[in-house]
């Protein structure tokens, strides 16, 4: 009797434990079955570059996370580091502002650091002609307005027709589950945050984008070798991969910020803070005039099929719009990534404009509205001004999205 009682008790305990299993939100890196491109580079690619001259484009989201390893491994294989290319936020990914000068001296590598947005095309081409390899390794977010893809395009333009080759270490980003979304860039709104010829959400990794651009726009005249991530299947969320998130820029310090960036970046086109200079950039947004933010949160509950919700918050940005002022606003909370980020962008700004008609303003530069430069044309802004429902707005460019999906399909690696 005791034996049977013990067995029954053991089964009861096991069942109870299984019924209260703690949900696993992310895969631990030690359990990841994915091999990052950086590890493949060091073990398989770098030894083949012996004696080569290299221009390095990276930051802490790539192999730049360990400058000492770069130095030791390059020395081991007699790879000559000639130049560094500075991205928007600098080599360490810490800078909020663009560099005022085209070239500075990097203290870590004792090499010139060229800030590509300040370097003329002809000067860049001269620099590229001096090297055998352009090594490109940074984390991306899958959006045209995230300027690292613009940097990649300029480098591909620069090596087109030269003997120099780009080796690009690919990364999985947070928008891998999304197809191409949005519209193309109207040339009159062209800017550094919109140079790459994709829709706003590209539907591609940087490696896929490089192959796509080199073939479709440069006729194969730019030599590109993409080192893919191994073991990844398209559709897996970033959190499922077990890959750590290495901060690519000051305002995307965590996966949550990067995920919310997809829908909140369009807020940079209006007079609110997106939390730059706070502990939660692209998670918080608000303004001193945004009183009773709970009303906006209530309106936003009707969208997204409960994929997200918003809670009131106060914050004081140390950088960007409303610097040093107490802002009331909202915090975005994600339940699932399965929602339309363009719809959220559109409805958020449309409702913001309706709730605060006297305070709401579209930000404008010397020539164009910032929202137009982000979206690619004035269609997004004008449709909101005309109170057009999102569904009707989306119907005007859905054919463009479907055409782009077919166009990029041959270049997808995962």
Automatic annotation (TrEMBL):
It comes from the Bacteria. GO terms for molecular function: peptidoglycan beta-N-acetylmuramidase activity. Residues 54-255 form the Peptidoglycan beta-N-acetylmuramidase NamZ N-terminal domain. Residues 261-414 form the Peptidoglycan beta-N-acetylmuramidase NamZ C-terminal domain. This is DUF1343 domain-containing protein.
């Amino acid at each position: 009797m005791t034996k049977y009682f013990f067995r029954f008790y053991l089964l009861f305990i096991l069942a109870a434990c299984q019924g209260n299993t703690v949900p696993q939100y992310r895969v631990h890196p030690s359990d990841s079955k994915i091999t990052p491109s950086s590890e493949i580079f060091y073990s398989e690619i770098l030894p083949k570059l012996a004696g080569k001259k290299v221009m390095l484009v990276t930051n802490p989201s790539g192999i730049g996370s360990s400058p000492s390893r770069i130095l030791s491994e390059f020395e081991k294989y007699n790879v000559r580091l000639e130049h560094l290319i500075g991205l928007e936020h600098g080599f360490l990914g810490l800078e909020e502002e663009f560099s005022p000068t085209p070239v500075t001296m990097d203290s870590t590598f004792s090499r010139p650091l060229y800030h590509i947005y300040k370097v003329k095309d002809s000067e860049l081409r001269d620099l590229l002609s001096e090297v055998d390899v352009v090594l490109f390794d940074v984390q991306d977010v899958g959006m045209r307005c995230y300027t690292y893809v613009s940097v990649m395009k300029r480098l591909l333009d620069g090596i087109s027709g030269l003997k120099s080759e780009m080796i690009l270490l690919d990364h999985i980003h947070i928008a891998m589950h999304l197809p191409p979304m949005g519209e193309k860039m109207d040339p009159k709104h062209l800017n550094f945050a919109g140079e790459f010829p994709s829709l706003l959400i590209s539907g591609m990794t940087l490696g896929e984008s490089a192959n796509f651009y080199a073939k479709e726009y440069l006729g194969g005249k730019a030599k590109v070798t993409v080192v893919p991530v191994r073991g990844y299947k398209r559709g897996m969320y970033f959190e499922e991969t077990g890959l750590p998130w290495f901060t690519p820029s000051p305002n995307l310090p965590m996966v949550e910020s990067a995920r919310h960036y997809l829908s909140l970046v369009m807020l940079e086109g209006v007079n609110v803070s997106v939390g730059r200079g706070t502990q939660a950039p692209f998670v918080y947004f608000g303004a001193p005039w945004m009183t009773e933010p709970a009303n906006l949160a209530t309106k936003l509950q009707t969208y997204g099929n409960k994929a997200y919700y918003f809670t009131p918050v106060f914050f004081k940005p140390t950088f960007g719009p409303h610097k040093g002022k107490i802002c009331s606003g909202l915090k975005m909370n994600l339940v699932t990534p399965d929602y339309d980020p363009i719809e959220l962008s559109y409805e958020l700004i449309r409702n913001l404009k309706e709730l605060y008609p006297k305070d709401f303003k579209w930000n404008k530069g010397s020539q164009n509205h910032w929202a137009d430069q982000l979206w690619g044309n004035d269609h997004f802004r004008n449709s909101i001004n005309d109170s057009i429902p999102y569904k009707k707005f989306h119907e005007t460019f859905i054919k463009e999205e479907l055409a782009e999906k077919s166009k990029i399909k041959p270049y997808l690696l995962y």
